[in-house]
Specification:
Two copies of one chain form a homodimer. The first copy, chain A, is of the alpha/beta class and 476 residues long. The first copy, chain A, contains 18 helices and 17 strands. Chain A starts with 7 loop residues before the first strand and ends with a helix. Chains A and B meet through helix 4, helix 6, helix 11, helix 12 and helix 16 of A and helix 4, helix 6, helix 11, helix 12 and helix 16 of B.
Chain lengths: 476, 476
């Protein structure tokens, strides 16, 4: 297994001592549950100076799944900080992420000049470090498989195939895939490298059919690859890559167990006092440009303006955790979220009623408390590979929440029949869906919520990974 | 004929007197050359208070082609200023233009709330005013045809078809057409109205195959219309619309005649002194977000940095005329252009050498002088329906200029084999093309320029309109 972020990370405490913690993030939580049950080596990058310091004391960069030096489960790559920063922040997060989520302010950004070419070389080095580590772990025995994750590692499949012929390779994209006209913002040679890199794999997986189709369109129109849509195959440079759709869901037993713990109950009690019996709309996101928090707040404001019957009777709990604060667009976006939430509180708040509670303090137990208390869960990304919040909420909701869901989230494929789907750019359409969700008869809401919970837990991470491996074993 | 801008407009001089001038803009120059030769009524909108004042003194809003009150060639619609502003600035120019050119800063814009719904009603009223005027002009005789222009008037074809059954209707889009994933930013009902509006026509025309294909994709995926790509037809609501590609080019005789006049020669003489025998790169654009002037300047800067052999030996003449200064994005963009041009002049300029001349003073004679003197013409829009600058430059160039052209301009279809095509987001790729253009052997450059001139003048406006009318007569 290869992914940028591994199952453990390190930090320094006040005394300068290194301490270990289990990693976070969607991919990691998806993979951690299966990692210990497999004969698996997990290759990841050192993400910080503390990680790099920790890994330098571990022989060969090898760690246990709990971070113990000298284990055999994790190999953390000591990539130089400058290279990592260019590959991770400048290429992966500022370019590939922006392309697939269509986030650019196109008249001004991107500008692919000399600095980007230098950054791209770092991205190649970073991918080569992974490919080299994976190749070194291949002992040549039959059946060795490499499963490579996400947009950080688009070049590694081709590099590994060349270093280690015969190893079976899967690549999986956790993001959306851009439509051709947007993908072609990338410089031509670099667009071709990204596609060719993934096509080095025997199997390329996506979270829903739409992203798989967009990838195949790009292979056809940018590379001129030979595409067989019926057989779900792309042929290029004499190699055939199978294309698969593998939705990722939630381990319901684990999640409901966690949501029943005491810290969650304590936060529910505190929240219940603020809510005071009102209807509760909840959203939980990283403060990510794609998550569309600003338009969500604008819709809540228009709901209060246009449906004054809700004044004093509803509350929005917006949990917006920090994300990518090293990128200026993200700091500005977080400030916009703060400003708009403050404006709504000023405009509508009274001595008795707090219309909105915004918190950017990362607290997983409170997220779970929010899920449990929600009458309505609002998930309105402008574009999202899957979105696990939409799946988690209905699973743990005590009352059976209604789900207002962007049709541009991959999860809409599985949840669309019981969620209220919205166009995320359409504020008034979102208002209409929120109002419908708030006024939905109890019986209907509970039935829909049950169906949502069933759909959201249909493919837990273990089944998701198994389906990729089965597809890889059957790959052309 | 119906178009937002007509063949004449009015302004007030210092004494408050109304004076008339011939209209500008791509569509108008395309249509003016044929208008006087046809049994044609041209319906357009009053664009300003002066237009509205002028048209109120003309019986029935009727004018001659030269603006004389009481003529029979032009009907200028007296649409209330507030309605016009909402329809033209807020819907057409701030939404439909942005969608088709993919110009949004998507994390923040657009936001389709209540204000947009009000603006959309104004756009409907504006379209209905045109449809009503066209229907009134239909005397019921056989063979009456209506040719409706562009993104301002997407609803008018359907409205006219309902008001005046039996009239043959063509619609023509002078913009690109957005890919489905981007078109669907529009609120669902409004996206459907736009498509349904154009499908009210018997024939829908586009400037190149790519935009026609994108429109057909939208009809299929957004409306669920029945699409026959081989026969180039879309069936919807029991009506069949033919889809056509009608490139628009330049009337070479008229343009070269104009470019030989004394005012052009005088500006050439003045420019030649500044140029001083150096190589000259020329660009001519409105200061439009889609025209990509900032990245063009960034490419020129990287050329000087990366190819120091050009220091003192090359000059960039950037003619960037004012556009849409009532929209804040455009004012900010114009300021960015000024800043970057100033920074380049500061960084590289010497007592003997002015590396860049930027002018935002609208002067057609100077544009023609720039064309005639250019060694290299740079046309790098991020997305453009056609781009007539790319066609005009080679036709009048004295030396046979090289053309660096964005592959995202519709003109790339016709000019691609002799232009140097670039990805407009790729600064370094643009630098490489500029360097190649500057160093191209004379003979090759002249041969390519001749081919470009031939391709650019292959379909003058009269032939463009004739091809639309022929397609309309043969429409299903």
């Amino acid at each position: 297994m290869a992914s940028n972020r591994g199952p453990v990370s390190f930090s320094r405490d006040d005394t300068g001592q290194l301490s270990v913690k289990r990693g976070g993030g969607g991919v990691v939580s998806g993979l951690s549950s299966v990692a210990s049950h497999q004969d698996l080596l997990w290759v990841c990058a050192a993400l910080s100076d503390a990680d790099r310091a920790a890994v330098r004391t571990a022989p060969g960069g090898m760690l246990g799944l709990d971070g113990t030096p000298g284990g055999s489960a994790v190999r953390m790559l000591d990539i130089p900080g400058a290279t990592f920063n260019r590959a991770y922040n400048r290429v992966a997060n500022s370019v590939l992420w922006f392309v697939h989520h269509m986030l650019y302010d196109t008249p001004n950004q991107p500008q692919f000049g000399l600095a980007f070419r230098r950054d791209w070389e770092a991205y190649r080095e970073y991918n080569m470090a992974f490919a080299t580590a994976l190749a070194a772990a291949n002992d040549g025995s039959p059946g060795v498989r490499a499963v490579i994750q996400d947009y950080h590692l688009t070049l590694a499949p081709r590099m590994l195939a060349e270093l280690s012929p015969g190893i079976k390779i899967a690549h999986f994209s956790h993001t959306p895939w851009a439509p051709v006209d947007y993908f072609r913002l990338l410089p031509d040679g670099i667009a071709a490298q990204v596609l060719d890199g993934i096509l080095g794999a025997d199997h390329a997986g996506f979270l829903c059919q739409r992203w798989a189709d967009a990838f195949v369109d790009c292979c056809e129109r940018v590379l001129g690859a030979d595409v067989d849509r019926d057989r779900r195959q792309v042929s290029y440079r004499g190699h055939v890559t199978g294309i698969g759709v593998h939705p990722l869901g939630v381990d319901a037993a684990e999640l409901t167990g966690r949501a029943a713990q005491q810290d969650v109950e304590a936060r529910m009690a505190a929240l219940a006092e603020v809510i005071g019996g009102r209807k509760l709309i909840v959203r939980v996101d990283r403060t990510e440009l794609s998550k569309n928090i600003v338009r969500g707040l604008a819709a809540y404001r228009e709901l209060l303006l246009n449906h004054p019957e809700w004044l004093g009777k509803v509350m929005l709990l917006a949990l917006a955790y920090p994300s990518r604060h090293d990128l200026p667009e993200y700091r500005e976006y977080a400030a916009s979220v703060q400003r708009l939430a403050g404006a709504i509180a000023d405009e509508f708040g009274t001595a008795e009623w707090t219309p909105i509670v915004l918190s950017s303090h990362d607290d997983y137990a409170r997220s779970l408390a929010g899920y449990r208390l929600a009458d309505v869960l609002l998930v309105n990304p402008i574009r999202d590979g899957m979105n696990l919040v939409a799946k988690e909420g209905p699973i743990v909701s005590d009352r059976g929440c209604a789900l207002v869901l962007s049709r541009e989230a991959g999860a809409a494929d599985e949840l669309g029949s019981d969620a209220l789907l919205v166009n995320p750019f359409d504020i008034s359409g979102t208002v209409a869906a929120l109002h419908k969700a708030l006024t939905m008869p109890d019986e209907e809401r509970k039935l829909r919520s049950q169906s949502l919970a069933a759909a959201g837990s249909a493919v837990p991470p273990s089944a998701w990974l198994a389906s990729q491996l089965a597809a890889l074993d059957g790959a052309p």
